[in-house]
Each structure stands twice: as structure tokens, then as C-alpha cells.
Amino acid sequence: MNTAKLVLNDREHELPVMVGSEGETAIDVTRLRSESMIITLDPGFANTGACRSEITFIDGERGILRYRGYSIEELARAAQFTEVCYLLLYGALPNREQLDDFRERLTYHTLIHEDMKKFFEGYPRSAHPMAILSSMVSALSTYYPVANAEEDPDLNIIRLLAKAKTIAAFAYKKSIGHPFSYPINALSYTANFLHMMFSVTTEPYKVPQVLDDALNLLLVVHADHEQNCSTSTVRLVGSSDANLFSAVAAGICALWGPLHGGANQNVIEMLKMIRSDGGDYRKYVAMAKDSESGFRLMGFGHRVYKNFDPRAKLLKEAADRVLRELNIDDPLLEVAKNLEEVALQDDFFLERKLYPNVDFYSGILYRAMGIPTNMFTVMFALGRLPGWLAHWKEMRQDPDRRIGRPRQLYVGEPQRSFVALADR
Ligand code: ACO
């Protein structure tokens, strides 16, 4: 076995070196503290592997993303979202029988308990749908406390995958004051969601194929992204043996932040602002470069991708295609492209390797579907759900699993004596 040597205060520590299946190298510091009282410090975990995982591979320098070995480009071109869910969860593509069975189970569990509809009545009309989604997912644990592991160990995983889109669509209906549209079992996963979002009682929504395909693509490209902020949250919460619904609800909350999945809502708001301000891209690029301004180009930059985000490329092409086929003239697409062009000619962005990320073009597609801006991050959550579930499952099955519990470097006051109030 290869080892690395760490020399500190003339003492040598030998650390095992591990190599992943794509040649990635990791120094294993698991026993460093117990043997030496030394810890490693890595704010934001930018250089820390939290686990070994077989699910997703990313090479940020070369713009590579693969789920279970399959490239995102191939999956985006040919795979159905339900196939990708199965692939992420079980490690292999399903055969016809396995896929039919999986889809049937997803369809069977689509309804939410009628009592849960009452919860929606309690939220204000203005409630952000991410808040509704996270609390409703957490509430599912009150209806399904434990799945019967012997009978069907993945039952709660299936329930959550099936019900999340119903909750998401009901949250939207609530926000516009419409009655809920119940799922129709004959429809595909994507068409069923669009039906629940847009059907009104007098007029069932006919899902245009181009939008069904675009939604499938969006869900596929969001399906997993290894140890990102929300997935790490799901793993961390799940590591305490908290139930599946609680772990995923925590992941939804982590995703909501504007530095993570919340960026897709902020991108559209930013593009609208630039347009209504006369479309002066250079002004906003200059603002983003000025650290004092507090403004960042939303949808730009990524912790891992330092070349390009392959998902952004796929979504940019799809946005062009969908708008063309539906004859939609969305001025924000033009604004986005111009902004990208200006930014990518600027040394500030080139030096820091800041490129459009998945959130930059996704909003243009959601707008073409008629999905309102405050639902964008919910759409991201629906896409990321199988990834969270696959990681939760992998974490639970890991024989080396331990509760997630980082260390810290204490930089506060050394011990001092308490001073009574009268003497202060
Ligand atoms: N606009 C302007 N400058 C940026 C941007 C941006 N969008 N992103 C990074 N920078 C600059 C930083 O100011 C910093 O510059 P400095 O070295 O001069 O201080 C440098 O680039 C590195 O930035 P960090 O914040 O250290 O990079 P980190 O890897 O921690 O953060 C993140 C990555 C959060 C995605 C960041 O690029 C960002 O805030 N982007 C905008 C929000 C966004 O689009 N988030 C979605 C990410 S994709 C996803 O989660 C699905």
C-alpha cells in the first residue's frame, strides 16, 4: 500500500494513500488524530473527501460528469428520468421488466394522504414553495414512520420519489388559489407532474412533447452531483440514523440557499434586473468584479467545475431548441447569452475559472414551461431527489459508517474565571 509522510515537530506520521477507480488520490487521515492529536483543517471541505462513493464521478478540470459510469451527455440524449433514478439507486440500468415494475411502484404511490391536504390550508398564499416542500417532506415521516424493511426495504424511498412531485404541484396550486389536480396514473412521471401543475378542472392540460422532453432533460441533468452542499447535508443528517424523510427535508433546506440551488431563481431575477436597467452587461460584470459591491453573477462559478459545467452546455442548447420549437421569444435568453459572452472575455472570470453553471440556463427552460420563478428551486429539488436517496442508501449500507462529526480548531479565549455581575 502507498503511504504519505507527514513530518511535524520532527515526528514522522505515515498515512495510507488510497486511489479511486478514476485514478483520484486521497490521503487517509482517519487515524491521524487518535495517533498524534493532530487534525486537518479545511473550511468548506474544499479538499476533504467525506466518504467513498460509487455513484457519481466528476472531473471538474475536464468538465466530466458521469452517473454510475455513464456520461451525462449520453444520459441526457437518451435516458428517461425514471431510468436514471433506478440507475442511481441500484447501480445498473434496468431491463424492461425492472423498469416497468419500478414505474408501476412510482405510480402506485403518487397520491399523498388526504389528511395532508389540510396542511396546505395553513400556509399563507405567499409561502415560498421550498418551505412548503421541506416541511411536507418532513411531515411524511408522521404517516410512514418506518418502512417494513423485511418486506420492502426501499418502500419509503419509492414513496418519497413518487409523492414529492405531487407535493410540489399542490404547493403551486395553493399559491395561485386553484383546486388541486390529482395525479393520473396513465401518464409518465414528467407528464403527470405537468398535468398536476397546469390542468384546471374544466380543461385537462395537454402536455406538449417538446416540454415533456425538456422537463425530462432538466431532471436528468440535476439528478446527482456527488458530495454537494445538499447531498452532504442528507448524508450528515442521515448519519445520526435520523429517518429518510428528515434527512431529505434537511437537504431541501440546504438546496434552497442562493449559493446552491436557489441560484436558479436569482439568475432570472438578475437577468430581469439587467434588462430593465437598459441591458448594460458591462456595468453588471464590473459590479461582480468589485468585491465591495456584494454582487455576484448568479449562475456563474462552481466549486468543482474549473473548465465548464457540462450541464450548462446541455441546457443552453435545449433552451435554444425549445424556444425555437414553441416559437417563444424570451428576451432573457438574449440577455443571458450576452452576459455570458461579456463575462467570458474578461480576465477576472478567466483567471478564476468562472463559467456558467447548471443554474444559468435552466430558468429559461422553466419559464418556457410556464413554471413561475419561485418554483425553480423546487424543480431542482425534484431532479436532485434520486441523488439524495441514492447517497442516503449508500451511506446506510456502508459497513464503515460512522456518525458525521467534524472537528474544529478552537481559537476562542483560553480558560478564565467567572466574574460576578456586581464586579463587572
Ligand atoms: N461572480 C463574481 N465573482 C465570483 C463568482 C460569481 N458568481 N463566483 C466566484 N467568484 C469569485 C470570488 O469572489 C473569488 O474571488 P477572489 O479569489 O478574488 O476572492 C473567487 O471567484 C472564488 O470564489 P469562491 O466563493 O471562493 O468559490 P467557491 O468555490 O467557494 O464558491 C460558488 C462557489 C458558491 C458556486 C460561487 O462561485 C458563487 O457564489 N456563484 C454564484 C452562485 C451560484 O451560481 N451558485 C450555484 C452553484 S451550482 C449549484 O449549486 C447547483
Q: What is the percentage of strand-forming residues?
A: 5-15%
Number of domains: 2
SSE sequence, one letter per element: EEEHEEEHHHHHHHHHHHHHHHHH
How many strands appear in the DSSP assignment? 6
Mean pLDDT: 94
The protein's oligomeric status is single chain
The geometry reads as: globular
Q: Can you identify the CATH class of the largest domain? A: Mainly Alpha
How large is the count of helical segments? 18
Overall helicity: 40-55%
What's the main sheet like? 3 strands, antiparallel
Present as ligands are: acetyl coenzyme *A
Structural class: mainly alpha
CATH architecture of the largest domain: Orthogonal Bundle
Q: Can you tell me the residue ranges where pLDDT is under 50 for at least 5 consecutive residues? A: none
Q: What is the assigned CATH homologous superfamily of the largest domain?
A: Citrate Synthase, domain 1
CATH topology of the largest domain: Citrate Synthase, domain 1
Can you list the strand order of the major beta sheet? 1-2-3
